[in-house]
Design a protein that fits this description.
By secondary structure, this protein is α+β, with helices and mostly antiparallel strands. Helix content is 31%, strand content 23%. It is globular and about 95 Å long.
């Protein structure tokens, strides 16, 4: 090494030592006689001093230093004079007096200052990601990510899990998101797919007798992106044989306890809270609730029926719901401000937003449609008090829950109700199936390999799937079938989901029939798994955790792009490398691919 230590490693114990350090010029301050430079590397920052009394040559060269020049400095470590110490950094008690300076490389003028990069546009930072990643905040994020993956690997190794890699070039089995396809030159007209998850292959590993598998694995989904999604992302994937739901939950809770203690020095209390899917939808309108604050959704159907407000009555008559939340302290909003809140609710899918102010009685355009006694009963239902604003949505249940759950989060932020810390919750007892009105068929709420609960298996096997009337007229018979599925949620983000799998071929075949997946289609997509289930497949189950999302929450970031070294934009474009891009015509010719789409 051409340096003796890292800049951020220098301490008072190094006083008097002659050392050589290397790094980037972070700040430069010319005080006339003395020139001060904050020298930065991955370990931190050290103040280095150029004095003409120590070295005239080094002092002269220091006049030409600019931000992000890469330099090597040699000199003596000294204690900072009294009153000049900086207690905010680990090296704040010491500094180096330089007797030799070598400029290893110069830097062009920066598109944004490293210190002020957070104020630059994200597009500019992503284009110059190599500069953005020099920021101490970004380096801290990626160092924490490294530590997280190390702790996870150590934990699973101690628990007897084997880390086994699965292929990146695999079979296209589109379920949900679109696959990323890769053409095969050696098998013309055929395509590989990049894996959306190793689901089928990890089940094959259980059939193969490995019993405990895990993998920190890249996955790919061609879907609409947002702050907590990327086209390529990293999963902590695991599967266990001879295990039930409680075994998987126990392993994950143990991992989280270890992770938060070793990485953040945070002690988690286990077991984590659990909510059924039905309860969380009723109370929060979402299966990924943030439990750090209240503002729960309340059912208002019974009280609405006692009024004459047509919007509410029409929704109830058509089988919909009327629910409300309490806007704490928001009765002082002007009509214009309430109109803006209504527009926000409409952007979430609502047809409108009804409201009643609890303010010297009741103030609202809809108050006249309800007897005073009914209005008074609404107040305790919503835990409202003088100065609050009761907000109502009436529509189909799915719309009501979606709108109010999103509105709840927005109000939680605006009213500063969201607490600090980490609040985990397991969501259990999911429905096995959900109805798709557009395609007039059932879909798997999780995936087609999720097992129903034991008490519903015989009911499922006895279904005459050739009777289409069961799926249209009597589909409610199947909506109460529960799945052996479970999600883990942290601070309002789903960070993982899993299930106990179907391991008997006849049950898997019946599940495909319920989902209207023909025998031919099942054979084409999942034939290798169905074959494997013929040869003594053990009971098994597992879970997949989103590593990027978990680390994002742990470091307090608001986007997973801040914990991924080279992320893509919301249009799945890499501004750094210009990916995706056009390729040479000869490459397409080798693959017998022709495109008529003009490349911009």
């Amino acid at each position: 090494m051409i340096r003796d230590k890292g800049c951020g490693e220098i301490r008072e114990s190094d006083i008097g030592l002659p050392l050589t350090l290397c790094g980037w010029v972070f700040r430069r301050r010319d005080h006339g006689g003395l020139i001060f430079v904050d020298l930065r590397d991955r370990s931190g920052i050290l103040q280095v001093v150029f004095s003409p009394d120590v070295s005239g040559d080094a002092h002269e060269l220091a006049h030409d230093l600019r931000s992000e020049y890469v330099v090597s400095v040699s000199g003596e470590i000294r204690k900072r004079p009294d009153g000049t110490e900086n207690p905010n950094i680990p090296t704040g008690m010491v500094e180096m007096y330089v007797n030799k300076l070598e400029v290893l490389n110069e830097s062009a003028p920066l598109p944004f200052g490293i210190e002020d990069a957070a104020d630059a546009s994200e597009a500019l930072r992503l284009k110059h990601r190599y500069l953005d990643l020099r920021r101490p905040e970004m380096q801290k994020n990626l160092i924490i990510r490294h530590t997280v993956t190390k702790v996870i690997r150590d934990y699973f190794d101690e628990k007897g899990f084997l880390e086994i890699e699965t292929p990146v070039l695999t079979k296209s089995t589109p379920e949900g998101a679109r696959d990323y396809l890769v053409p095969s030159r050696l098998n013309l007209g055929c395509f590989y797919a990049l894996p959306q998850s190793p689901q089928l292959l990890k089940q094959i590993l259980m059939v193969s007798g490995f019993e405990k598998y895990f993998q920190i694995v890249k996955c790919f989904r061609d879907e609409d992106l947002r702050a907590d999604r990327q086209p390529e992302f990293t999963q902590v994937d695991l599967e266990m044989s001879f295990a039930d739901r409680e075994d998987v939950i126990e392993v994950i809770e143990g991992m989280m306890k270890r992770l938060f203690k070793e990485v953040l020095s945070v002690k988690l209390e286990t077991p984590f809270e659990r909510l059924s899917f039905h309860e969380t939808m009723e109370r929060f309108g979402t299966d990924k609730p943030d439990l750090r604050f209240g503002l729960e959704l309340k059912d208002m159907v019974d009280l609405s029926e006692k009024g004459s407000f047509k919007v509410f009555l029409d929704a109830i008559q058509s089988g919909g719901r009327v629910k409300a939340i309490n806007g704490k302290g928001m009765a002082g909003l002007s009509r214009k401000e309430i109109d803006l809140l209504t527009e926000e609710a409409e952007s979430f899918g609502a047809k409108g937003l009804a409201w009643i102010k609890v303010k010297n009685g009741f103030e609202s355009p809809i108050a006249k449609f309800f007897p005073k006694e009914i209005l008074r009963q609404m107040v305790p239902r919503l835990d409202a008090e003088e100065g609050d604003l009761m907000l109502f949505v009436a529509d189909k249940e799915k719309v009501v829950h979606n709108v109010l759950s999103r509105l709840r989060l927005e109000l939680g932020k605006r009213l500063n109700l969201i607490g600090s810390g980490y609040k985990f919750v397991w969501i259990t007892d999911f429905p096995l199936l959900e109805w798709n009105d557009e395609e007039v068929r059932f879909e798997a709420m999780h995936h087609p390999f999720t097992s129903p609960v034991d008490e519903d298996i015989e009911k499922l096997l006895s279904v005459d799937t050739s009777n289409s009337e069961l799926f249209t007229v009597h589909r409610s018979l199947f909506t109460d079938i529960k799945a052996k599925a479970y999600d883990i949620v942290l601070n309002g983000y789903e960070i993982g989901g899993g299930s106990i799998r179907i391991y008997r071929r006849e049950l898997q075949k019946k599940m495909f029939e319920l989902l209207r997946i023909s025998e031919e289609e099942a054979r084409m997509k999942f034939g290798f798994l169905l074959d494997a289930l013929e040869y003594g497949a053990p009971p098994h189950g597992g879970i997949a955790l989103g590593l990027d999302r978990l680390v994002m929450i742990m470091v307090g970031a608001t986007s997973i792009r801040d914990v991924i070294a080279f992320p893509k934009t919301q249009k799945a474009f890499c501004l750094l490398s210009g990916t995706p891009s056009a390729v040479e015509p000869r490459q397409l010719k080798e693959l017998y691919i022709k495109t008529d789409v003009p490349i911009e």
